[in-house]
Design goal:
Blueprint: E1 16-21, H1 24-44, H2 52-74, E2 78-83, E3 87-92, E4 99-103, E5 107-116, H3 118-121, E6 125-129, E7 133-137, E8 141-148, E9 153-157, H4 161-175
Helix pairs in contact: 1-2
C-alpha cells in the first residue's frame, strides 16, 4: 500500500494526521455495484417467465446485496487517524463513518505493532474480539495499539505508525508530567 507521511519525525505538529488505504476494497465495491446494476436490469427488463414473486425476490435480493457490499466496502477503503493535544480520532471511509474519538485522558499507553492483518481480527473493517479488544483494520501492515484506562485496547492500521506512537507518548507525558509510557 502507498505510504502517506503527514508528520515529520523531528518535531510534532499540533495536529498529526495519518492514513492507511486498501485499493483491494475498490474491487469489492465494483462487485457490489455489479449486483446493484443486475437488480436494476432485472427490474427494468422484466422478461421473467417464472412469476412476479420470483422476479421481485431477485430484484430485491440483488439490490440489497449490492448496496450492502458497495457501502460496506466503501466505508473501509481507507482510515484516517488524527491526533491533537486532546484526543485520538479515527474516521473510516469517505464520509468518516464509523468514527471513534478517544480522549487522551483515557489512554494509558501506545505501542507500535509492525504487522496487523485482517486474519488476526476476522477480516477488514471495524472489529471487536473479546480477547484482543477493538480494531480498525483496512489493510495488512503496521499499526498503533492504544492501551485504554479500562483495560481494553484499540488497534488502528495506519502508515507511519511509529511516528504516531511517538506523538501519542509525548502528549501523554505532557498530560502526566514525570511519567514514561
Amino acid at each position: 500500500m502507498r505510504e502517506h507521511r503527514h508528520a515529520q519525525d523531528a518535531s510534532h505538529p499540533d495536529v498529526w494526521t495519518g492514513r492507511a488505504t486498501n485499493r483491494v476494497q475498490w474491487l469489492l465495491a465494483l462487485v457490489g455495484a455489479a449486483c446493484l446494476a443486475l437488480g436494476i436490469e432485472l427490474a427494468v427488463e422484466s422478461a421473467w417467465t417464472s412469476g412476479s414473486a420470483a422476479l421481485a425476490m431477485s430484484v430485491v435480493g440483488c439490490i440489497a446485496a449490492g448496496l450492502l457490499v458497495l457501502f460496506g466496502t466503501l466505508a473501509f477503503v481507507h482510515v484516517d487517524l488524527k491526533l491533537d493535544k486532546e484526543c485520538v480520532e479515527v474516521r473510516c471511509g469517505h464520509i468518516g463513518v464509523p468514527r471513534r474519538r478517544i480522549p487522551l485522558t483515557e489512554v494509558v499507553g501506545a505501542d507500535f505493532t509492525p504487522v496487523v492483518t485482517p486474519r488476526q481480527w476476522g477480516g477488514w473493517g471495524y472489529r471487536w474480539r473479546p480477547e484482543k479488544g477493538t480494531a480498525v483494520v483496512v489493510r495488512r501492515g503496521e499499526g498503533v495499539v492504544l492501551s485504554l484506562w479500562d483495560g481494553h485496547t484499540f488497534t488502528i492500521t495506519v502508515d507511519n505508525a511509529e511516528s504516531a506512537v511517538r506523538v501519542i507518548r509525548d502528549r501523554l507525558r505532557a498530560i502526566t508530567p514525570g511519567t514514561a509510557h
